[in-house]
Specification:
Largest sheet: 3 strands, antiparallel
Order of helices and strands: HHHEHHEEH
Strand content: 5-15%
Oligomer: single chain
Radius of gyration: 25 Å
CATH class: Mainly Alpha
Number of domains: 1
CATH architecture: Orthogonal Bundle
CATH superfamily: Winged helix-like DNA-binding domain superfamily/Winged helix DNA-binding domain
Strand order of the largest sheet: 1-3-2
Shape: elongated
Length: 121
């Protein structure tokens, strides 16, 4: 008698059982609001242009005008503003309006995230 199982036969009940743990599992340490914030920041940093923008701003001792930021990138001003908005919404940079111009700087959190990301290389 052949004991091999054919492809159409179902496995034995014990083979279907899920992995057994040695005790109750610990719940996730991050709460949803924390994961939302982390994911937003990670998405903002996942773009090479935004990462370079954050690096540029973190290297400065004073806020940069958006026109000064534009000089460092090949994209046009509307695209630069879009990237800056994403970084600002993620809390990695901040800005203030001075007349018609906006001036940007890296936040403390932005500088910390940049240092952490640079540590991954």
């Amino acid at each position: 008698m052949d004991t091999a199982q054919s492809p159409t036969e179902k496995p034995a009940e014990e083979e279907l059982a899920c992995c057994a743990s040695d005790g109750p599992l610990s719940p996730p340490a991050l709460v949803p609001s924390e994961t939302d914030t982390l994911a937003e920041r990670l998405k903002a940093l996942a773009d090479p242009t935004r990462l370079r923008m954050l690096d540029l701003l973190a290297q400065q001792s004073a806020a940069l005008c958006v026109c000064e930021i534009n000089e460092h990138f090949a994209q046009r001003q509307p695209t630069i503003s879009h990237h800056l908005r994403i970084l600002r919404e993620a809390g990695l940079i901040d800005c203030e309006k001075r007349g018609v111009w906006a001036y940007y700087w890296a936040t403390e959190s932005g500088s910390e995230w940049l240092s952490a990301v640079k540590g991954l290389r």
